Amino acid sequence: MSNKFDNRADKLGEYWDLLNKNRQLVGSKRRGEAFGQNEWHLLANATIFNFDQEVLIQQRSFNKIGRPGEWEAETGGSVLAGEDSILAIKREVKEEIGLDLPFAASDFVASFKKWPTFDDWYVIKADIQIEQIIIQKSELEQAKFVSLNEALPYFPSDHLAYVTQIGNNLFGGEHA
């Protein structure tokens, strides 16, 4: 099934807030314009767990500008001008996989800084099955749920220190 967002991937004309190294707003920039040494922008990404203790992994479209065809354990992308990361992650998840998930500030895990981006990472547990996912074909080739151990190779290396702790918090002990 297709959705109304299928033609939105890699829009070079969209505007992003331009930030300094302290994450303060200093202007705006169109996607596709080069970043200066002291210019940054914000990303929002989410790892989605289902109630079966599985992680959603996605294969990026082969037509994407960055990392075409790669598998990853996150859904998300660039924060548009005027958005904060929580609004952006809700929008990105709706666009890319067709789900309205109730992201809250408590789902925020960490922000990773690697020039030219700040990458706000959220983790959510939701009662969803793969049949509910409607992929945006311009963004993704396919998506599937896998065990946390199977998903580990698809996490960015700077996330790995958090992953086991998150799994335990979501599915074990008092946080289950």
Secondary structure: elements and pairs:
Layout (H helix, E strand, L loop, with lengths): L14 E5 L5 E6 L10 E10 L3 E7 L10 E2 L2 E4 L6 H13 L10 E7 L2 E10 L13 E8 H4 L8 H12 L5
Parallel strand pairs: 3-8
Antiparallel strand pairs: 1-2, 3-6, 4-5, 4-9, 7-8
List the total number of helices.
Answer: 3
Q: Count the strands?
A: 9
Write the CATH architecture name: Alpha-Beta Complex
Mean pLDDT: 90
Structural class: alpha+beta
How many domains? The number is 1
Find the CATH topology: Nucleoside Triphosphate Pyrophosphohydrolase
Using the coordinates above, name the CATH class. Alpha Beta
Provide the descriptors you would attach to this structure in a database record.
single chain, 176 residues, alpha+beta, Nucleoside Triphosphate Pyrophosphohydrolase, 4-stranded mixed beta sheet, 3-stranded antiparallel beta sheet, globular
Structure characterization notes:
The chain is α+β, with helices and mostly antiparallel strands and 176 residues long. It has one domain: Alpha-Beta Complex (Nucleoside Triphosphate Pyrophosphohydrolase), CATH 3.90.79. It is 16% helix and 34% strand. The chain has helices at 85-97, 148-151, 160-171, and strands spanning 15-19, 25-30, 41-50, 54-60, 71-72, 75-78, 108-114, 117-126, 140-147. The strands form 3 sheets. Strands 6-3-8-7 form a 4-stranded mixed sheet. Strands 5-4-9 form a 3-stranded antiparallel sheet. A hairpin with a 5-residue loop joins strand 1 (15-19) and strand 2 (25-30). The longest helix has 13 residues, at 85-97. The N and C termini lie far apart (33 Å). Residues 1-8 have low confidence and may be disordered. Residues 39-169 form the Nudix hydrolase domain. This is NUDIX domain-containing protein.
